[in-house]
Amino acid sequence: MTLHAAVESRSAAPAARSAAKVLVDQLKIQGVAHVFCVPGESYLAVLDALYESGIAVTVCRNEGGASMMAEAYGKQTGRPGICLVTRGPGATNASGGIHIAAQDSTPMILFIGQIERENRGRDAFQEMDYRAFFGGLAKWVAEIDEPDRMAEMVGRAFSTALAGRQGPVVLSLPHDMLPLPSKSQDGTRIEPVETAPAASDMAALESLLHKAKRPFLILGGNRWNRAALTQMADFAQAFGIPVATSFRRAHHIDPLHPNYAGDLGLAANPKLVARVKASDLVIAAGARLNELTSQGYTLFDIPVPQMTLVHAYPGAEELGRVYQPHLAIHAAPQAFAAALAKLQPRKTHDVTAEHRAYLDWSETGTPQPGAVNLSQIMIWLRGHLPADAILCNGAGNYAGWIHRFYRFQQFNTQIGTICGFMGYGVPAAVAMKRLYPRRSVLALNGDGDFLMNGQEFATAIQYGLPIICIVFDNAMLGTIRMHQEREYPGRVSATSLQNPDFAAMARSFGGFGATVEKTEDFAAAFVAAENSGLPAIIHVKFDGDGISPTTTLTAIRNKALGA
């Protein structure tokens, strides 16, 4: 062979891919369209591989915000949200999103740039043991030591995140490994395994349904789609079964469906709680019977509930974790819904009273001290916003007004943390607006809640994402103050806040800002925010004594003091 021919032969051969390039190629194979990150020198090779990948990169202000954006993406799409952070401080900051993904059963993968392999165990700059740190949170934690195993381990990460009870995976990427050539062959797109109920399970359930006098259905969890939820609603209507949604899954059924009985979470309607307790058959479909849905583990007896309990869930490890069901069905939600659709009712039950109780509970606002009434604001929003508007929120007593008075009319329009993590609303809204630029996206926040990740408003500005952030400001950490007044009445400690001018903050970032101090001024401020076309903050100041839709701090204190 001549020298010229040899050169031509070498140039024609495919170039070896770096491990970083293999990683990005696997993300593309898995259908990843967005990643969320805070850059770091420890994974520069991955950032370079993303340069011409076609994958959109959202650069965030803090790793906590980035990880929450990825978690919200996973919650919304059903595919793992992807977050990239650097070692040490970046990884620890990102742990918030991993905690949310673990408790909310959200598929997510966190990639962490790691120190060089040769320096492990030397207390190198920002060195951490990620297996130890994330081991109690993530479904799987691993380090990719060998470039040739990149495709294998990324594929396993997607499989693990999507399997059974979904959740987060953490993979660390040594800095020195990423640029090395890799012989990895590409994997294939991973889909979650759809476990289906056995025929004997459905026969047993049908028999229980025929015997039941006061059945009840709890809808919750993830891995649903619109078709499956329609089947669940049709099943409930055919059998005459009232339906409640588990905490922050209110979008699983149309709230005006005649079988809907309400949200079974924090501050649930007492009539709803009493109805569930009085049931002789409860079917929990897709929902974990966690602390909030079980009303602090008081709704059912432990370990064996007082009524017949049927629990259908895609992760076998969850069946019998706390409550031992009379019938455990290991089945993915979609398969379970399809099997239910084949059952034939012999009788139906009147659910008028249950639905009426929900309407009575949510239709009309409740009194509130001061010039701002949050229930009236929520009622206005539910009449004004389009049905596909997405509402994102973190944690705080302000959320009680959302749960009670807003009505989520379409699937996946409620994006909130089941675990009650503060600071979630703004990052989640940024992620949702990246996904759906033409839909209305709101971040609903308390004042303390907003300031935990409010800096991601800058991310919305950078990418031209006109989210509307509503900050409900009562100058305190209200949830903790409520408990404080109940346990230590009159002894206010560490729960007061001195807040900035949030509207001015929005304008300083280049967004729209408005301040609302009277209920009747809210509508005009909101419409102005919409018309601005800018990311917006509406600062709503309200009387802190109005701590919930049903009571005041004064009433809580007086009761605790025996007044």
Give descriptors for this structure.
single chain, 563 residues, alpha/beta, Rossmann fold, 3 domains, six-stranded parallel β-sheet, 22 helices, disordered N terminus
Could you walk me through the main structural features you see in this protein, from its secondary elements to its overall organization?
With 563 residues, this protein is an alpha/beta fold. It folds into three domains: 15-182, Thiamin diphosphate (ThDP)-binding fold, Pyr/PP domains (Rossmann fold); 199-358, TPP-binding domain (Rossmann fold, 3-Layer(aba) Sandwich), CATH 3.40.50.1220; 364-561, Thiamin diphosphate (ThDP)-binding fold, Pyr/PP domains (Rossmann fold), CATH 3.40.50.970. It is 37% helix and 17% strand. The protein is built from 22 helices and 20 strands. The strands form four sheets. The chain has a six-stranded parallel β-sheet. It has a six-stranded parallel β-sheet with strand order 11-10-9-12-13-14, sandwiched between helices. It has a six-stranded parallel β-sheet with strand order 16-15-17-18-20-19, with helices on both faces. α8 links the parallel β6 (140-143) and β7 (168-174). α2 runs parallel beside α8. The model is unreliable at 1-13 (pLDDT under 50).
